[in-house]
Design goal:
By secondary structure, the chain is mainly alpha-helical. The chain has one domain: Four Helix Bundle (Hemerythrin (Met), subunit A) (Up-down Bundle), CATH 1.20.120. Helix content is about 75%, strand content about 0%. It contains nine helices and no strands. α7 runs antiparallel to α8.
């Protein structure tokens, strides 16, 4: 849900900036690469040192590249399979860097094995959630469900939690435990989303197999109602 409405809003806001970059000869792929590099830098430079606030600021600045590159491709009329593949692949890289940075902090100076394990679980579950949809679509199934927690929700939950945890460094009465409940909710939401997609793929694959089975001729009028 957040993904739908947030994208519509930020697409309108970022359209002039995307047009500006195109006029300067910047390609959508370049924006994708720079955005991912910025997210990785914010996550892997700041988070492992416990500087969650500044890491969140850097990541937030660069994470909007995910909207800018697509906007640029549409305006330039150069949308391609390669661009979609690159964007999706680097999204996974960026997500891994974010949770990897959090896990590194809690495995080291943060000294919290529980939150380290939660971060690793969030990293893995996010990858699997994305994989189920991609794999289902690769075998010809529509996977007609987004699920409870999409990537936009995952990023918002994670960055808000990390930013609040980072306020501890400014003397605000907040602590790194600000990450515990949001990340736990993130993990549970990912499990629900994974279950929704697996059930959907199971149903769609059964329907497709039944339709392709020998002798499964369509009944009269079925084409009109399918």
């Amino acid at each position: 849900m957040l993904n739908k409405y947030a994208r519509a809003f930020f697409t309108r806001v970022l359209t002039p900036f995307a047009a500006f970059l195109l006029r300067r000869g910047v390609s959508p792929d370049a924006v994708t690469l720079v955005g991912t590099a910025g997210v990785m830098a914010g996550a892997l430079v700041f988070f492992p040192r416990g500087e969650f606030f500044w890491g969140t600021i850097v990541i937030t600045l660069f994470v909007f590249s995910d909207l800018v590159d697509g906007n640029m491709a549409r305006q330039a009329g150069v949308s391609s399979r390669w661009g979609a593949f690159l964007d999706s692949t680097l999204d996974r890289v960026a997500d891994s860097a974010i949770f990897g940075g959090i896990a590194l902090w809690y495995a080291g100076a943060g000294d919290d094995n529980v939150l380290c394990a939660v971060a690793i679980f969030c990293l893995a579950s996010g990858q699997v959630v994305s994989y189920t949809k991609a794999r289902g679509e690769s075998i010809g199934l529509p996977v007609a469900v987004n699920g409870l927690v999409e990537r936009a929700e995952r990023l918002v939950i994670t960055l808000v939690a990390a930013g609040l945890a980072g306020l501890h460094g400014f003397g605000v009465p907040a602590s790194t435990y600000c990450c515990r409940s949001p990340c736990g909710s993130w993990g549970r939401g990912s499990l629900v989303t994974l279950g929704q997609r697996v059930v959907t793929v199971r149903r769609e694959s059964a329907e497709a197999d039944a339709a392709a089975a020998p002798g499964a001729a369509a009944s009269p009028g079925s084409e009109a109602t399918s």
